[in-house]
Amino acid sequence: MPERNVSPAGREILSYYEGIDEAGRLVRGAGPLEFARMQELLGRFLPAPPGVVLDVGGGSGRYACWLAGLGYEVHLVDPVEKHVAQARVASRAQPEHPVASVSLGDARSLDQADGSVDAVLLMGPLYHPTERDDRLAALREAHRVLKPGGVVMAKAVNRFASLLDGLTEGYIDDPDFVPILRRDLKDGQHRGLPDDVGYFTTAFFHRPEELEAEVLEAGFVQPGTYAVQGPGAVATDLDGRMSDPAKRAQLLDLIRTVEAERTLLGMSAHFVVAATR
Prior knowledge:
Helix content: 25-40%
Mean pLDDT: 95
Shape: globular
Low-confidence stretches: none
Radius of gyration: 18 Å
Strand order of the largest sheet: 3-2-1-4-5-9-8
Structural class: alpha/beta
Order of helices and strands: HHEHEHEEHEHHEEHEHHE
Number of helices: 10
Number of strands: 9
């Protein structure tokens, strides 16, 4: 994002992403499960190609490149210069199916014309605005640029994500982590540690009903809420299961079976609201 009226929190978030390997996140640990599940959900709710997809906060281009390879006209927007550079490199690596455009931008103020795209992906821009008005601004921009009947895929970090990580990774034994966790559980306002990327950065962690209400207030209709990882992230030997075709298929099928079960949504590190304009 160009240096224009960026808040201190905004600078912190940009600095965080400039300093981590976001490009590699989806290929290690629980990343492959997240990516596989998002491929399933996108494949289910996006209109069939060809069509215009706006990937807002698209990072290093993993989803954008995959969708372009399927025949979509994909435009990626991201506020992090490092991500934009990485996405351009990734697009050039598939010259037969390049991403149509890659640019710096802000989810709250998009350059696209009214009613110009078939689908908008918000798979990151709703993580970080700590004020509801800013999240609504991003959702309303998505609504504005969508064609009638177009689809938004709004992804959130779950309110209980830090609790799950704290328990499975042992972070609850770190006295610096416990206050972060307690604030997350209280109001979803996540704050990492200064000069330490290990506990993420400034963010807002949603409850499902909060994101659903924001999506409806922005003008969308027919929202459906789906777990991304669901309870799958606590599976034993996740790396082995995801690399074994039969075990991978079984795991994904089990997650899919309970993806909309309200009583289990809190077990998923991320969830998605799919809705139409």
